[in-house]
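Sample A.
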Amino acid sequence: MLRETIARCGKNTTLVNHMTKNAYYTIGSVVKAFAVIEQMTAKNKWELADLARAVGIPKTTVHRILLTLQDLGYVVQNEEESAYSLTLRLFTMGSSVVEHTTIQETARPYCRRLLDSIGETINLCVPSGMEMVVVDRLVTSQVLRQDSIVGRSFPIYLSASGKACLAFMDSAKAGSLLEQIRGESNGKIDSTELANFINEIEIARKNVVSFDNEEIYSGVCCASVPVFDCNNEFVATLGTSVPSVRFTPELRQLASRELYSAAEQLSIRLGASHYPKPHPTKK
């Protein structure tokens, strides 16, 4: 059970530093190169000294990484300013990945029907590390709405999609992910808070539909349901994000019903042999 992770998590409150994590397979130069690439996405151009300071890697090492990436076509240097920038080659690669990830295309008709029936923004999200990534999004025409873009990520912790993810993914993976979330919080998540979150995960498993109430974005409430593939394994979430002022009990009930129906149909379309049923409510 996920509750068993509380004791284990309590023993590990040290911030995990991937730069110094010594797994047997880790290639340090690859880790450093990706640290540089990820940091460079934070702004358009970087001076060498600023970039080295930001990633905490010696300037000579960062310079060699930049020259290598430049030779490969991933980085370009502005000769007049001596600043370095990423090229769009990474975007091209990412677009190719999305193009070959067919869940977006398969899910799109269901997302359209959800947008029509609920009238609020619909999100298709997949897990990536400790975050959920929006891989498709249909935006409501209503003026008051949450602005976001495909490719944006948000924390698994406390989010409706994150609760659905942890509730229905492999239990061992879920426990390990919870440990990692707790560890990288640097002690900010105590045992009581984690226990409350795990309780919400278990409620999500019973109800199939999960919620967050402005825990991630101020003024925005979300509902989410799991999606399964041909191996009956969790692969994504379907959800809706709604301004809190519009998330009435009636809309909450409508969203729960419509999301569940769409996710069940989508899962069957993806080859799942069954979809979880909500536990009956005790009277």
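Sample B, a different protein:
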Amino acid sequence: MIRFCAAFVVAMTTVTFASVAPLAAQQPTEQLDEAARLTFESAREAFVAGDYERALGLFRQAYNLSPRPGLLYNIAQTLDRLRRDAETLQALREYLEAYPEAPNRTEVEARIRVLEQSVAADEQRRAREQRDHERAVEQARRDGTEPPPPPGGGLGVLHPAIFIAVGGVALVGGGLAIWSGLETSALNDRYRATSDPAMVGQAYSDAESMQTLANVFIFSSAGLAAVAVVLAIFTDWDAFGGGSGSAARVRPTFAADVTGGRIGLEGSF
């Protein structure tokens, strides 16, 4: 069930002032509340549409404009959908701290207990992986061999989306290179078959222009493919699962022998 804070509706209908303040002093707060309400509505729409990254940014922006405790719950919900367990846990704790009488306190406390177990298990796993890595490095040092890469695959400095984007553009460029190559072949055939002297120059120019375009696509896609291979090495493949608590474990694989070589990805999502 999707639940959202109704703080702005309450604020618009039941506002109580301890004293009557000058209108000029009230306007900034009212303007911030209105901006926060509009931002909240945009965030809610993004959440319902499944655009959780955008929803998170907008919920946080609304909270900065009008720090109502209910928005912390909206932020926590969005972080939960993004599987960012440690941040979700922190947001839920802040929500209960800011709103001790929250009507959904029992539900939130139950979710906190689950998240605490998940975060603790993830921290233990990371600590175990780090200890195993340190032992492997020490063993490699004694054996005089190359030490293994750190846990997480590669150097873990780039998001997989970068590799996917570059690889996708390389594939598109390769498709365009094939198309332009076929067009070049057809234009060359037309040039050879042209017997009209007045058309020979135009046919040759068309074939030459298409050949130039084909070369641009070929070299561009080849360069992008090489960049994609490099990015595969520098990519943090665990980022596929959204960080803490993720079950994703993906890493690039490279192999070569006398019969050839292989490059790819292996793991699970």
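Observation for Sample B: Strands lie at 249-257, 260-268.
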